[in-house]
Amino acid sequence: KAGVTQTPRYLIKTRGQQVTLSCSPISGHRSVSWYQQTPGQGLQFLFEYFSETQRNKGNFPGRFSGRQFSNSRSEMNVSTLELGDSALYLCASSLSGGARETQYFGPGTRLLVL
Amino acid sequence: AQSVTQPDIHITVSEGASLELRCNYSYGATPYLFWYVQSPGQGLQLLLKYFSGDTLVQGIKGFEAEFKRSQSSFNLRKPSVHWSDAAEYFCAVGSNDYKLSFGAGTTVTVRA
Fold first, then answer.
1. Which residue of chain B has the CA closest to A47?
2. By the 8 A CB rule, do A87 and A39 touch?
3. What is the pLDDT of residues B10-50, one digit of tens each?
4. DSSP string, A34-68
């Protein structure tokens, strides 16, 4: 079974631009979560989607948004990029997002904002 | 709110020596605990997890972890480290609001 895939793997943007990242979960998984990883803040939860509904959102500004499609694929968007948005963005999928479930992570998208 | 503390930022261990990584959690209910490993430039891979039952859990790559409720700890161990174990290790707690809360991570360096 194919793992979680994320595209693109690397991105360079300039301040003020916007960016869209994509995540394809493992087949059959309906929950998709996004995390931001930075050296200073570590791994921080962005949001979680299940059946096209956002069930939880982390403490990030409204510039960060996401959505999920009917095939469970998910995208996240960051508008008006800031230097501090440079990070590794990780997507994870699980069957239904339950607390006991293993979340399977993709390789991440590394975003550099100049 | 749930939280995870990994007291050691960086550990250096000789190849063949034992390894123990510490993790303390704060969670009001029964904790769902995980250890993940991240190699450079990679995503996170699950090593093991604990929900209930036997407090000593076995994982992949020869790792094990022991849950101690009285100490709110879930320490990761490996009896004999290989050079390929050099990576960053994250302890996490799962919650009923569909997210994982991670510790800051421990970077393991393996010297020959």
1. B99
2. no
3. 999 999 999 999 999 998 777 899 999 999 888 899 999 99
4. EEEEETTTEEEEEEEEETTEEEEE-S--TTEEEEE
Question: Hey, is A102 helix, strand or coil?
Answer: coil
Confidence at residue A76, expressed as pLDDT on a 0 to 100 scale: 98
> How would residue A93 be classed by pLDDT, with cut points 50, 70 and 90?
very high
A90 at B interface, C-beta within 8 A: yes
| Residue A66 contacts B where some CB pair is shorter than 8 Å | no
CA distance A72 to chain B (A): 16
- Report the relative pairing of strands B32-38 and B24-26 from DSSP bridges: unpaired
For B34, nearest residue in chain A (alpha carbons): A102
Residue A25 three-state SS: coil
Question: CB contact, 8 Å: B32 with chain A?
Answer: yes
- Report chain B's terminal Cα–Cα distance, integer Å: 41
Indicate if the pLDDT at residue B1 is higher than 80. no
Q: Which tens digit of pLDDT belongs to each residue from A37-48?
A: 999 899 999 999
The answer to whether B36 contacts A105, with C-beta atoms less than 8 Å apart, is: yes
Q: What is the pLDDT of residue A69?
A: 97
Q: Are A90 and A35 in contact (CB under 8 A)?
A: yes
Type of residue found at A104: Y
